[in-house]
Design brief:
The complex is a heterodimer of chains A (76) and B (467). Chain A has 76 residues and is an all-alpha fold. Chain A has a domain at 20-66. Chain A is built from 3 helices and no strands. Chain B has 467 residues and is an all-alpha fold. Chain B has one domain: Up-down Bundle (Sodium/glucose cotransporter), CATH 1.20.1730. Helix content of chain B is 81%, strand content 1%. Chain B has a two-stranded antiparallel ribbon. In chain B, strand 1 and strand 2 form a beta hairpin. The chains are: A mainly alpha (76), B mainly alpha (467). The interface between A and B is large, with 39 and 48 residues.
Chain lengths: 76, 467
């Protein structure tokens, strides 16, 4: 049975997968292009930083919706 | 600077040994010594994981990587680390669940239990040994070359390397895993402070971040985009590196042990998030150090550039802290890896606990000496050698994941295929096999093949068992 917690966890995994795919497309690493710059920072660097932050935020969300979290809470 | 170095170095070594002795007093059993009592909380767990993960290659290798190959080095390491911490949430849960059923002395022992075959443990242990010893060696080599550059007349680099190995072995043998974790806490803090101090000075030299990139644009604009001036950061290379780095906590024993010894799953999960933030905090300043080098020392050799940027261009106190920070970075990763190899060795042996502990301690010294010998023989390409280590161990991931996820013993064919894959990769490193197969880097090709074949074996056995 797929619970609400499971659905959220699966959604997180899908989001992480999409993020991985996006990271390795020209959307983040266009060949030889470094503009538009953000506060003087080249394009691939600032988009790369955003991707890393997005991964960490997704990880944070994933820890909150992981299906085993409920069992852990019961144990405690 | 020598006076500062003597003062700070003495404080550092005294603190390391005190922490080891403090840990020794609290060690009451073999489990305490090898597994730190398996009750590690969030703060210590996160700092030891981070300090073990980020090493000399972060402080020395990454700036040089940014200087030579440009800002896509961020995608190479930081984005891969972001993916890795997400994977910890999934893998940490399944690993801990399996450990609660089978027990844990080391990953090699766990694989032996899961596959019901000793060969699985031996293949894992040999794979970890072959790819971790060079990684430890390059940490030691990086710092010893650096120390030799600072004091060219004082000691040859192999004596510096020996000195580092001896310090590491002393406090590891005294304090066990908990002692190493306390040391990691201190070393991770020193590393973070050091890298930010140097980066601030580098940015201050340009007068701001925007100005820094403007000067890089003027001197070598190819550094500001992928694939970089030497064409290294192709999508292919980045994806292949992503896979290798992603699987580090699955395949490298010093990190899997840290996932197991956490107090509970909540602490493991929180630790993953904290490591993600730490990754950003520690890699970000290396961009500035690299860009500084790209403008000021574009043609310098690696050791000349590092000596200049980390030492001679810094105020005396910061330069002294940097030297300590570099030693700390090398020690914090190497000690964990050497100790973890000792743990793996113990997990594939059996017998009397007292005799086993003695054998483990002797093995740890042997692994330290092996790393020392390799450090004298290895090359200076820190990041690329580290990548080979990540790629090599990542090939064992399908075998490990099959064992962790399967409720029945997976087939022996998975172990044999993994051993074959490892031999193929080693063959390619020595030039006996091509580096690229069917348009893919050989490590990616082997990893994908192993994943598919393991999955086939897994499903076939599940179906035949159910029939």
């Amino acid at each position: 049975m797929i619970t609400r917690s499971n659905r959220k966890w699966i959604a997180c995994c899908c989001a992480a997968l999409v993020l991985v795919v996006i990271t390795f497309t020209p959307l983040v690493i266009p060949y030889g292009i470094y503009k538009p710059m953000l506060w003087g920072i080249p394009y691939t660097l600032w988009t790369g930083v955003f991707c890393t932050i997005a991964f960490v935020i997704l990880t944070l969300i994933a820890t909150r919706v992981h299906p085993a979290r409920e069992n852990e809470a019961v144990k405690q | 600077m020598t006076i500062w170095l003597i003062i700070l170095g003495s404080i550092y070594i005294t603190t390391l040994l005190s922490l080891a002795l403090y840990s020794k007093r609290r060690t009451k059993s073999t489990n305490d010594f090898m597994m730190a009592g398996s009750n590690i909380g969030l703060v210590l767990g996160f700092m030891t994981f981070a300090a073990t993960l980020f090493s000399t290659f972060t402080l020395m290798g990454m700036p040089d990587f940014f200087r030579h190959h440009g800002i896509a080095a961020w995608i190479f390491l930081a984005v891969s680390d972001g993916g890795m911490v997400f994977l910890i949430v999934w893998f940490g849960y399944h690993l801990r669940k399996k450990v609660s059923e089978k027990g844990y002395q080391g990953l090699a022992g766990l694989l032996h239990e899961c596959y019901k075959n000793k060969l699985a443990g031996y293949v894992y242990f040999l794979g970890a040994f072959v790819f971790l010893i060079p990684y430890v060696a390059i940490q030691i080599r990086g710092v010893s070359i650096f120390l030799n550059a600072i004091f060219p007349e004082l000691l040859p680099s192999w004596i510096w390397a020996s000195f580092i190995i001896v310090i590491m072995l002393i406090y590891s043998e005294i304090g066990g895993l908990k002692g190493i974790m306390y040391a990691d806490f201190m070393q991770g803090t020193i590393l973070l402070i050091t890298v930010w101090l140097i980066a601030s000075n580098c940015v201050a030299y340009f007068g701001g971040i925007g100005e820094m990139f403007a000067q890089v644009e003027a001197s070598n604009p190819a550094l500001l985009s992928a694939p970089g001036p030497n064409g290294l950061f192709s999508v292919h290379f980045l994806v292949s590196s992503f896979l290798a780095i992603l699987l580090i906590p699955v395949t490298q024993p010093q990190l899997t042990t840290r996932l197991v010894v956490m107090r509970n799953l909540t602490a493991t999960h929180r630790m993953a998030v904290a490591v993600g933030f730490f990754a950003i905090m520690i890699i970000l300043p290396t961009v500035a150090i690299g860009m500084y080098g790209a403008v000021r020392y574009p043609d310098a050799t690696t050791s000349d550039y590092l000596t200049q940027v980390l030492l001679f261009d810094q105020p005396m106190l910061i330069a002294s802290i940097t030297v300590i920070g570099l030693i700390a970075a090398a020690l914090s990763t190497s000690d964990s890896q050497i100790f973890a190899l000792g743990g793996e060795f113990r997990s594939i042996l059996g017998g009397d606990e007292k005799k086993l502990m003695l054998q483990t301690r002797v093995a740890v010294v042997f692994f330290g000496l092996a790393a020392l010998v390799f450090s004298i023989l290895s090359s200076d390409q820190l990041v690329l050698l580290a990548r080979v280590s990540f790629a090599g161990t990542s090939l064992m991931a399908p075998m490990i994941i099959a064992a962790i996820l399967s409720s029945r013993p997976p087939g022996l064919e998975v172990v044999i295929l993994t051993a074959t894959g490892l031999l193929f990769f080693i063959g390619s490193l020595f030039g006996y096999l091509p580096q690229v197969l069917f348009g893919l880097r050989i490590e990616t090709f082997i990893l994908i093949s192993l994943a598919l074949l393991t999955s086939l074996s897994f499903n076939y056995r599940r179906k035949t068992a159910g029939a």
